[in-house]
Design goal:
The chain is mostly helical and 370 residues long. The protein is built from 16 helices and three strands.
Length: 370
């Protein structure tokens, strides 16, 4: 996403300076952005990655509309901002072709490959959230950016597709799994864990050895935000029973050997970066799936597709939606369950986990310690 500021910003949208601003403070748009970001940081609701992404969106916003009092921004400004966004190229700040150029200069080049609808909507959503906050705090009278998102034909489940049986067989039939040709243990375990837990990549990469434990005499993976760990939302905290296949392949032996070495994390070779522990693993899996024909597909198929595959297999078996939601860390739609009921016991969720059977796709895999 665009993030850098050209040496001389050239506004492409002119705010309405005729608006009556007597009833609201005439703060500069940059000052309002800084106040908004400061509040989010103090509240601890943004990760470093989220903060960086918002800064990129806000910087581009200022490049497009220019420095101006926030109370001069009106519906026309919002409409014109959206129009400019739709004409901007992908990788605006990474492509040497556009480096150092103003927004007007970039538009004059009429880029052919423009921002994807999903990226456009991220920008529009974040600017709308900014102005909703600005309205609530008395900087503006209206949020002129509300409702500007572009409609998309994609439904939520189509944005990333599930892996087919054939694709799973390809993923788990490589020399990595047949002959143990991998540079790091996470190459072996992460795809298997993703498939059998439905967990997000970062949730798996940040696991501690103590997170693999017994609860009510059932072996579980405790997905939590203790210490330095981060979760997407409070509902993401959950206990996932360990699938028998993972035990058969040697997961518990792997954990015990790490404990004997004095390690504390499941994948100590993964180092924490700005966005958590998963950057190196994400890059590796992108390289891993490319020769398997799973790289540039529409809809996308990436590590998150394990999560979709996991939930889809359970859904197709007609299992209760709220129980599947408990396994993958989604909030409950039923307010009675969400507010008053205790989480599902591990024994209940273990029955669901054991309904997952990927044996055909995994038949070529050697256990970790053979």
């Amino acid at each position: 996403q665009p993030s850098a500021t050209p040496p001389t910003p050239s506004p492409s949208v002119t705010p309405n300076t005729a608006q009556n601003a007597s009833s609201v403070p005439s703060e500069g748009v940059r000052e309002v952005i800084e106040a908004y970001c400061d509040e989010k940081r103090r509240a601890g609701t943004w990760t470093a990655k989220t903060d960086h992404e918002h800064q990129a969106v806000f910087e581009l916003f200022i490049q497009i509309i220019g420095e101006c009092p926030v109370d001069t921004i009106d519906a026309r400004t919002a409409r014109d901002y959206k129009t400019v966004l739709q004409k901007l190229p992908t990788n605006l700040n990474k492509n040497p072709l556009y480096r150092g150029k103003s927004i007007k200069q970039v538009l004059a080049m009429k880029p052919q490959e423009t921002l994807a609808v999903s990226t456009l909507n991220k920008h529009l959503t974040r600017i709308s959230s900014l102005f909703a906050w600005a309205k609530q705090n008395g900087y503006v009278r209206e949020n002129c950016f509300e409702g500007l998102k572009l409609k998309t034909k994609k439904r939520a489940h189509e944005e990333r597709a599930v892996f087919t049986d054939d694709e799973l067989a390809r993923l788990f039939g490589t020399k990595q799994y047949q002959r143990h040709r991998f540079a790091h243990p996470y190459y072996y375990w992460l795809p298997l864990l993703g498939l059998h837990t439905g967990a997000r990549l970062e949730e798996l990469c940040q696991l501690h050895l103590d997170d693999i434990r017994e609860e009510d005499s059932i072996l579980v993976i405790d997905i939590n935000d203790a210490g330095e760990k981060k979760l997407k939302s409070p509902s993401s905290q959950r206990l996932v029973p360990i699938h028998p296949k993972l035990i058969e392949l040697g997961l518990l032996d792997f954990v015990n050997r790490l404990r004997d070495k004095g390690e504390t994390r499941l994948f100590p070779e993964l180092k924490r970066g700005r966005d958590g522990y998963s950057q190196a693993a994400s890059r590796w899996f992108s390289r891993y799936r490319e020769p398997l024909g799973l790289h540039n597909l529409k809809p996308r198929k990436d590590f998150h597709s394990f999560r979709h595959t996991f939930s889809n297999v359970l859904k197709q078996q007609g299992l209760p939606e709220d129980q599947v939601a408990a396994l993958i860390g989604h909030s409950k739609n039923n307010i009675t369950y969400a507010r008053y009921a205790d989480p599902y016991a591990p024994a209940v969720l273990k029955e669901l986990i054991e309904r997952l059977d990927f044996s055909d796709a995994l038949k070529m895999i050697r256990p970790f310690y053979t």
